[in-house]
Amino acid sequence: MDPPLVNDSSFSPANPSSYTLSEIWPFPINDAVGSGLRLAVNSTPSDKDISTAAAAAAAAEESTVTDLTAGWGGRKARALNSEEDESSKMVSLSSSGNEVVRFVRFCDDLNVIVRIDLVESVTKKDSGDKKRKLCGSESGNGDGSMKPEGETSSGGGSKATEQKNKPEPPKDYIHVRARRGQATDRHSLAERARREKISEKMTALQDIIPGCNKIIGKALVLDEIINYIQSLQRQVEFLSMKLEVVNSGPSTGPTIGVFPTGDLGTLPIDLHRNIYEQQEANESRGSHPEWLHMQVDGSFNRTT
Amino acid sequence: MASADKPINTDVPEKDVFALHFLQSLSNLRRQNTFNSPEKTNDRVKKIKKAAYVSMARAAGGTNRLWSRALLRRAAKENNKIVRFPRRKKRVTCLRRRSNRRDPVEEEEAERLRNLVPGGGGMGTSKLMEETAHYIKCLSMQVKVMQCLVDGLAPK
């Protein structure tokens, strides 16, 4: 492990964007070294690469990236400034080494993301998050805040991403998480969310329709739903035909009491309730073909 | 009957409200029949059917639902009345998105469903599913109540 290198003297005058670091870091850096705070470059292949590259950079006296390592236990704070790309490239040219070359290549890949992540304590982490957001907005790249999963570093990056996602406040948008191998652009995410919503509604619909739970496949389920609605509408038609027979029949029997021609009191409802319960009681008789037959007979009797 | 073996979910459709409206319109129709000259049977059947649907739409919450709103609007248009519903939404008439990526079979089925559910032409797919669920519940309630009426009121 390399000894921690501190060069804050070359930091502030070299680039104007380093004020964020100095603001976040009010205490002297030597103390930070003791407390296990580490500043590294984002999206490097592994921790050791970061440290060696940053150490080499610091030794070349041109560096803008500081790496303070006291504990390697996954606690890291990372900073990468877009304005520093040229200078870091110069550093890599001056100081040879495989790690540095890789580091610079990574810098070229993600050359616009400014991110500072301080994970020393909770309060310091919060302030670091705020500052990181500020830096991201300053750099003018929305991608850094939109998709945190796409740019995690390969070494210990998942842990850092989880830590980063945690302190974000809950918002009113739908949270969609892309699985491995799924597309992460916003159209795909929106489409996936829409499809999930539709399938959820479809399962709710499936529960309503009797005997529809066993059917697999969206098209078949939709077909069944359509058939069910059509059968219900046909039943309504038949029943209205039958009611027409009853309604316009001779005004004898119970119809007089049922339909009082005038204002409607609560009488029909009570009657209807009684009828309803009665019908519930003798539900067991299979009425469908019977009344259909009866209905046809009745309508013919009416027309003739 | 397909819907007879499943109990009606009582919280969504109010069968009492439906029965009240329906019986009221039936009595109105009956009065018209006795006073006016006798119409043809088909017209009376149509009127009763329309009364049943309008009562169902009223019982289902009036203009709160998209399908009941469409039903009431259609019925009012047939009566040549100009209606203004409260809380009218600004709605695009055709929200259907044409896309080649989607499953064509599924889209075709959804299109058929749109034609069946009243007011389904302006809905998106997820909204269509929601409205269809409510519409099916109300339809089964309506069928049950009408069946009860027929069974109870048929001359012995």
Distance between the termini of chain A: 104 Å
Order of helices and strands of chain B: HHHHH
Termini separation of chain B: 22 Å
| Shape designation of chain A | rod-shaped
Number of separate structural domains of chain A: 3
Q: What is the succession of H and E elements of chain A?
A: HHHEHEHHHHHHHHHH
Q: pLDDT below 50 for ≥5 consecutive residues: which ranges of chain B?
A: 1-10, 90-96
The description of the largest β-sheet of chain B is: none
Q: Strand tally of chain A, please?
A: 2
**What Rg of chain A is obtained from the alpha carbons, in whole angstroms?**
37 Å
- The DSSP helix count of chain A reads 14
What's the arrangement of secondary structure elements?
The complex is a heterodimer of chains A (304) and B (156).
Chain A: H1 11-14, H2 19-24, H3 29-34, E1 39-40, H4 47-59, E2 77-78, H5 85-94, H6 98-109, H7 122-139, H8 143-146, H9 157-165, H10 186-208, H11 218-247, H12 255-258, H13 267-281, H14 288-303
Parallel strand pairs in A: 1-2
Chain B: H1 15-35, H2 41-59, H3 66-78, H4 104-116, H5 125-153
Helix pairs in contact in B: 1-2, 2-3
Domain IBH1-like N-terminal (chain B): 18-78
Main location (chain B): nucleus
Keywords (chain B): Nucleus, Transcription, Transcription regulation
